[in-house]
Amino acid sequence: MKTAAEILARGLYDAGCRHAFGIPGGEVLTVMHALADAGIAFHLTRHENAAGFMAEGVYHMTGAPGILLATLGPGVANAVNVVANAHQDRVPLIFLTGCVDAADAAGYTHQVFDHGAVLGPVTKAALTLAEGEVESQVAKALAIATEGQPGPVHIDIPIGLAGKTQGAARPVDLPDTIAVPAAGPELTRARDLLARARRPLLIAGLEVLVQGVEATVASFARDFAIPVITTYKAKGVLPEDEPLALGGAGLSPLADTHLMPLIEASDLILLAGYDPIEMRHGWRHPWDPEKTAVIEFVAAPTTHGMHGASLTFVGDIGAGLTALRDGVAAGESWSNGAPLAARDALRGAFSADEAWGPAAIVDEVRRALPADGIATVDSGAHRILLSQVWRCPAPRTLLQSTGLCTMGCALPLAMGAKLAAPDRPVVAFSGDAGLEMVLGELATLRDLRLGLVIVVFVDASLALIELKQRQAGLRNLGVDFGVTDFAAVARALGGHGVAADTREALRAGVVEGLAADTFTIIAASIDRHAYDGRF
Ligand SMILES: Cc1ncc(C[n+]2csc(CCOP(=O)(O)OP(=O)(O)O)c2C)c(N)n1
Ligand SMILES: [Mg+2]
């Protein structure tokens, strides 16, 4: 007979989970120990929010749901940001917390608030484990976290229940419901549209990665010579050095000036797992489905209202594309060469041809990082520029928060990725304010003994916000701050630290850092207003 905590831990282990992150309190000790005893390593972090991003980093490398453990009350409150991020960024995250037993909650107030009420709007489900139902609840939590559009599921574990032996479990029935388009008038119409298209475009989104159908999408694009735009999360679905790859889009109005004319000129837009949660305002209603045929394959019914489509198929994106192309011969594609011209124009607009500056930093690190390397990037001006300049040779090689766009994610994402894939080189890019938000995690990084490289863009400014402030004609307020000696901070916390203001110094720092057995911070100083006119 197993306790509730043991059943929970076994269920998570069987789902492939091998790492959990967080900060315990007295209320979750039983759960933490049960996780470790089941073979799920527990990693102590300095903040629950960062712990959640480390869990996400592991998920991107292993495919298994992330696990975040926190105590009741303040632990829950500290984790709200990363849970919201998992919701917006479609990350299967199991958030485990303790709670006082129902009978106690009636007459006890210390640290007690309604966890479910706080987390309800930012989770797919919030469950409280119940006597005799633990096994089925864990199975349900995992199914909800991973199906359709993945996301966070909160499991509250009553203190009294965690260590209590449970009786025989009920059978758990959770059938897989993924669908493919059935033969019928819609599929026939879709095939006809594909057969007649002369200027087709494909827009790939994060659900392609979630469903693991990158190869199907890439061969579809190659076989029909269809140019591919991706969201930032889907960068690399088609290796970005291929001629059909038009790079990532979503946050850069400058990139849109080159991409929107293609959308306007296209006679068939194929949406593959395109979830517009990553896209800025300019991507609201980017096409008129009355004028342009749009066929979409998505994981979940579209209720976002961001764009229309002529035909929407919900279910298995790879099987959908395979059914679509069945019996359709590849025809002419863009005889005017417009996509290649747009690709050249984009490369010119986001050129790294400068001796020093933010694009030179991105370019230099890209050259130093091997093709199997993983980069993460924080929120801010540096991220928008990097997402346009950085070329991904494969999917999930650039990790970032693209739905919530929160600061403070790049360092912990990189830590989780490195922990789960220790043989792959990992670089985290961050703004100075974003890194200052998570400096405590350098102590976690020291304890984990992970050799990763952190490149910080030092501009003593919330550059993205400062730029918006100036563009709005407002006076300078609340966006500037002092210069931190990040190299010294790194050394104080057990890492290496170097300052770089030339390509040579940066390259040497990255090469040495990737070979080191502890972390390295490279403080790359850039000019104030370095991003003006660049995205
Ligand atoms: C948690 C959080 N707070 C505030 C913001 C709003 N915001 C977006 S970018 C940014 C500036 C970040 O500054 P820094 O990390 O130095 O990057 P830079 O823009 O200078 O490249 C801010 C404040 C956010 N996205 N997330
Ligand atoms: Mg900055």
What's the gist of this structure?
The chain has 535 residues and is α/β, with parallel strands linked by helices.
Could you please describe the fold and organization of this structure?
There is one protein chain. The chain contains 22 helices and 18 strands. Helix 4 links the parallel strand 3 and strand 4. Helix 12 packs antiparallel against helix 14, helix 15 crosses helix 16 and helix 15 packs parallel to helix 22. The mean pLDDT is 97. The structure holds thiamine diphosphate and magnesium ion. Magnesium ion binds next to helix 18.
Overview features:
535 residues, alpha/beta, six-stranded parallel beta sheet, 22 helices, 18 strands, 39% helix, 17% strand, binds thiamine diphosphate, binds magnesium ion
Structural class: alpha/beta
Task: Let me know the number of strands.
Answer: 18
Count of separate DSSP helical elements: 22
**Biggest sheet: strand arrangement:** 2-1-3-4-6-5
Instruction: Report the major sheet.
Output: 6 strands, parallel
